[in-house]
Amino acid sequence: MEGPDEYHVPVLADEVMHFLRQGPEAGEIMDGTVGGGGHAARILQDIPGSRILAVDRDPDALKEARRSLAPWSGRVRFLQARFDEAAQGAGVMGPSLRGALLDLGVSSRQIDADPRGFSFRSGDAPLDMRMEGAAAGGRTAAEILNQESEAELMRIFREFGEERRAARLAREVVKRRRTEPFERARQLLDALTVVHRRSPEAGEKARVFQALRIAVNNELEALEQALDALRDALLPGGVMVIISYHSLEDRMVKRAFREWSRRCVCPPEIPICICRGEPLGTLLTRSVVRPSKEEVEANPRSRSARLRAWRRGA
Ligand SMILES: C[S@@+](CC[C@H](N)C(=O)[O-])C[C@H]1O[C@@H](n2cnc3c(N)ncnc32)[C@H](O)[C@@H]1O
Q1: Strand 234-244 relative to strand 97-103: parallel, antiparallel, unpaired?
Q2: Is 82 in the pocket of ligand 1 (CB under 6 A)?
Q3: If you take atom 13 of ligand 1, which residue's CA is the nearest one?
Q4: Which amino acid residue places its CA nearest to atom 15 of ligand 1?
Q5: Nearest-10 crossing angle of helices 38-46, 13-20
Q6: What residues does CATH 1.10.150.170 cover in the chain?
Q7: Does domain 132-216 have CATH number 1.10.150.170?
Q8: 56 lines ligand 1 (CB under 6 A)
Q9: pLDDT of 275 above 80
Q10: What is the rounded distance in angstroms from the CA atom of residue 50 to the CA atom of residue 67?
Q11: Looking at domain 4-109+223-312, which of 3.40.50.150, 3.65.10.20, 3.40.50.2000, 3.40.50.740 is its CATH number?
Q12: So what's the pLDDT on residue 1?
């Protein structure tokens, strides 16, 4: 039987545990991106008596988490929701969390074996990429490619994919869709090959697919909306740990944690502090935590992971 390790190897798991252990003993830990349950299983194993609110927007991932976390089922509540919704009342009522964990992006299972076209690996896969699946509605990756303006496509490729040839790729997509609407991954790979004038490297393909996935699932908005809500859902002393894989996400987390840890919140033009503000909590990671060389060798997908942690004031 497949366990959490085969589904997705949890990234920076020792570091996640190091920070979550610093939270208070009462309350739940919300794993807002439970995926295959890798981190959640570590928490349940290593923190005796801990209880978890296991959240994922992807119904297939949640099904897998139910299976892999079955040995601890009495200590886990499962919720299919976006983590921002879960933090704002769908799962958490008032400050009740000893910890909150977000491990952003997609799991290895979604990349390797999911028929929704998250990855460039299967050219035949439909360009869907909706994490909630078709039943929840929302635009597919193909619809974005077929309907968005050239300027918007360029923004998506540039901002979310850090693609240097974003303008040329957007132009090529618009040209191609006039004769053959986008449906399958291979069509996007063909457009990318023309733009690069050679077969694109794996990293180049991955970045373009990542850009579309972020746009389809409004991933940056979900994170933006979740940050304050998760902070307010923490008990005094509660710890938030976020692992991001994209520089825009990491920047958002870094800014929020810094802002919440500042003593003075007066606007910069005021020469003397008048707010007498108290920080909302403490930054636990002065600089970002990255996986060790050994972890990257054992699990290359951890390569771009960046972890930050923060603790709410008592
Ligand atoms: C990197 S995987 C998490 C893997 C997990 N930590 C483990 O060790 O098995 C990210 C998961 O987050 C989910 N996800 C991404 N964005 C989400 C959101 N806004 N709300 C809820 N789940 C989300 C994805 O469906 C995916 O299952």
Answers
A1: parallel
A2: yes
A3: 33
A4: 105
A5: 50
A6: 132-216
A7: yes
A8: yes
A9: no
A10: 19
A11: 3.40.50.150
A12: 39
